[in-house]
Design a protein that fits this description.
eight-stranded mixed β-sheet, 17% strand, 2 domains, Rossmann fold, homodimer, alpha/beta, 8 strands
Chain lengths: 324, 324
């Protein structure tokens, strides 16, 4: 029988060498885009402590679970989140295809509002607009809409596509955790099916390790073929206390490592830091208006200080922000 | 930094040899507990077709998703399901600890009913009894109850514990699929948190690749510590059309391989067989009263014949049923 596609011979040879001589791995520099200061040291020390056999803080591989928020933690979320740009594009397309189509007030805000008007929509209006816009889409249809949008969209300020808005240091951090036996999950307030089509390429996270806001879905047989179809309601908005709940539903374990930056993350970080095993929480702090943006979540900084989370300061801690 | 725990040298050597010379893998016999007849041949041919580069039916690794029902597909479900025995034990324990405690009619059936009375409970009553019995349990508490129960329980007829009630040929099938680049998921009508504590040991399936019935969960802070706690209601009963829905929620892809045996599985099997990629569905047919049980799901056999599913006949197709 034919197994997985064989890698090329040089790749095989290097992997074999690393496998026979694991000390070679140690020579590799981890987190190259992080400056050598407190945050990087804290991460290296934590991972060393929990992965060294015999260490009092040793954690077995199945329990090495790490969860990352997306917007503002792995990718730029200003002036608007990626998902918001996708929704704006979708509503505009609906109107371009059928100018007389009746749309809701929230969809109208998306199509015609300023960034600030869109940004001030209530969570409820935003979720309702999402549900209305994609109601009736099969999972496959929705996924190809995301892929098509991502192929063309550019960020208004950086003129970069989705794949180049991911913070390089955070990508390195996820790679480092995986190389250290962690399983890395995404826990986003954006719709789970919006993140999935690029989770593998951008974050190295398989689609089934993505957790996010979930639409009500329905099983439907249309012309003798079965589909799972998005309905006009949101089932679970994965923010705040719903983050630990959805972590339990999808992972079934309390993570030992988490990173977040916004109002959707305090409960996830609290849940992780309340675990019995040695844990680490990162708060990504946006203090770099030149390279990215400057904004603060005061409540979260307070929580971070109370609980000893590592506050990652973009300006001081990161050599680079985006891929070249 | 210290990476994953190093394996012993002989293990390393064998793995390295297999890695350098993948043809060695071909010498290994797959599915040794399957008789060499139609079912085994069909499985081998399917996996060959979808994993051979250049084959018109080739499927890339991320799309090689396989889903397995549990009760009656991977483990014995007669006279009652594993979860039912766990619930009976839990309700009896509640009454032993507090004999005057008021319990519901459904809980009373579990504690005092005959197998046949318990088996004829409606799905609604059964789910309600589950929810009542474990309401208030944190995820960690519930998980240790399952582990404690599984450590002591023996099947009434076979006098075997949970780990020895898993069908050997199905375990081999899951191993074979994994060796061929598939990701294997469990999709059970039992509670997701009931399956998880033994999914890794019994099925080789990591906890986050288990899908099942889900309780309503709540995030709670008790004595300044955060928990996720089961509530007195079931959120989603993962049977019938909810199987494809929960597959989309947890996996985000239509599987290409599935196995089932009961009334909870027709929609999952239909959904898989309606996919665009070459797919395979197995129906596990219980026709072996001497080694296991004999019972038929007529509707499912009809569907299997209509759609060309492979009907696995325990008696003819399996050399052994349970581990020695």
């Amino acid at each position: 029988m034919n197994m997985k596609q064989p890698s090329s011979f040089p790749v095989r040879l290097i992997l074999v060498c690393l496998f026979i001589f694991p000390p070679l791995l140690h020579a590799q520099e981890f987190l190259p885009s992080w400056n050598d200061n407190g945050s990087k040291q804290a991460i290296l020390e934590y991972v060393h402590a929990v992965t060294t056999p015999g260490s009092p803080d040793f954690i077995t591989v199945p329990d090495r679970v790490a969860t990352f928020d997306v917007d503002g933690t792995l990718v730029t979320e200003k002036p608007l989140s990626l998902e918001t740009y996708f929704m704006i594009s979708s509503v505009k397309k609906i109107l371009a295809d059928a100018p007389d189509k009746e749309i809701s007030h929230s969809q109208k805000t998306l199509a015609e509002g300023t960034d600030s008007e869109v940004d001030s929509m209530s969570g409820k209006d935003y979720d309702q607009a999402f549900a209305e816009t994609y109601s009736g889409n099969s999972q496959e249809e929705f996924s190809s809409k995301v892929v098509n949008w991502a192929a063309n969209w550019l960020h208004p300020r950086f003129k970069k596509g989705v794949s180049r808005l991911c913070y390089v240091p955070m990508k390195e951090l996820m790679d480092f955790l995986r190389a250290s036996g962690f399983t890395v999950f995404i826990v986003s307030g954006s719709n789970i099916d919006f993140i999935r089509p690029f989770s593998e390429e951008l974050f190295g996270v398989p689609q089934n390790q993505v957790i996010g806001t979930e639409s009500v879905l329905k099983y439907k047989v249309i012309d003798n073929k079965s589909y799972v179809v998005k309905q006009s309601r949101i089932d679970v908005v994965t923010v705040g206390p719903n983050k630990p709940i959805m972590i339990e539903k999808h992972i079934g374990r309390r993570p030992v490592f988490a990173a977040g930056n916004g109002t959707s993350d305090p409960e996830m970080l609290t849940y992780v830091s309340d675990g019995k095993r040695k844990n680490m929480c990162l708060l990504i702090h946006h203090d770099d208006p030149d390279r990215e943006y400057q904004y603060t979540n005061g409540e979260l900084v307070k929580l971070a200080n109370q609980r000893g989370f590592v506050i990652v300061r973009m300006k001081e801690d990161w050599k680079t922000v985006f891929p070249e």
